[in-house]
Amino acid sequence: MAQRDGADTMNILVTGASGFVGSALIRQLLARRADFPGTITAALRRSDAIASPNALVRPVVVGELSGTSDWSSALTNVDVVVHCAARVHVMNDTAADPLVEFRRVNVDGTLHLARQAMSAGVRRFVFISSIKVNGEQTPPGLPFRADDVPRPSDPYGVSKMEAEQQLLQLAAEGAMEVVIIRPVLVYGPGVKANFLSMMRWLDKGVPLPLGGILGNRRSMVALDNLVDLIIVCSRHPAAVGQIFLVSDGEDLSTTGLLRKTAQALDKPARLLPFPASLLTLAARLLGRPGIAQRLCGSLQVDIEKNRTLLGWTPPVPIDEALRRTAAAYRAAP
């Protein structure tokens, strides 16, 4: 990147700029302007996607991510692309052929953007992938590693794996650098879906039969920690061509997570000590084995590569990250 007054001048394009990760990344880049002077371009699907425009952020409407999107205006004078936009994993997908839809957005759309970025002279492309490329479950104490053979088991994971492979091939054939980050479950202020539901249950004092799930371990990553790694990967020379897994560096059992989250909410955790084996059996009898896998199974990642290669450790401890998440939940209307 160009140098100015001792700091990197990094002109950056963030796709999915109104999303959970993309918007947090832009906020952090704005907070670190002294270290990262340069333009910030926010790629949006709709013109109304940014509720509070910032004079330091250039919004560009590109529409839906696909193999025909025109990125020319968004890529003007851009050094780094951080590609957060995607068709995300959903629990009950209604598409006739989910894999076709995931490939259309996550593979074709990503490669179309990357090719245009390379032609526009972009130096680095940071791709936000998913731990689902590695798989769905690990034995306790045997975490996934960044260089493991991918074993995705659902269409979303397959599409992310295929996009990774084609991006690395594209980088090998051209001058643009590629970095891949596979997050685990991301939580933080503004989190939605299952994590939000969990906080609501704990906040209301709902008794939960989850007090006996002590033997599993789950890796998660706070939004602030993920964003910090993205920023490091956007300019660190050792990140080029690498795949990184990311977590908070502290793995919790399901019961442990519930207790810590309740503590962050300043609420008692009303957890009934049902054995994990009974919950697994009940879920199978109800035809919902996936629920038991997510509650009782393990999914751990090893982030030693991040420490060794980048000198990166998660800056926000999990207890503090949960406090920030709980505070935002309480402050929400």
Write a concise synopsis of the structure shown.
It is built from 10 helices and 11 strands.
Give a verbal description of the structure.
- It contains ten helices and eleven strands.
- Helix 1 links the parallel strand 3 and strand 4.
- Helix 2 packs parallel to helix 3, helix 6 crosses helix 10 and helix 7 runs antiparallel to helix 8.
- It has a seven-stranded parallel β-sheet, sandwiched between helices. A two-stranded antiparallel ribbon has the order 1-2. It has a two-stranded parallel sheet with strand order 9-10.
- It has 333 residues and is α/β, with parallel strands linked by helices.
Number of strands: 11
End-to-end distance: 42 Å
The description of the largest β-sheet is: 7 strands, parallel
What number is the mean pLDDT?
92
Query: What order do the SSEs take from the amino end to the carboxyl end, as H and E?
Result: EEEHEEEHEHEEHEHEHHHHH
Number of helical elements: 10
Strand order of the largest sheet: 5-4-3-6-7-8-11
Stretches where pLDDT is under 50 for at least 5 consecutive residues are 2-6
Structural class: alpha/beta
Strand content: 5-15%
Q: What percentage of residues falls in helices of 4 or more residues? A: 25-40%
What is the rounded Rg?
20 Å
Judging from the principal axes of the Cα atoms, what is the shape?
globular
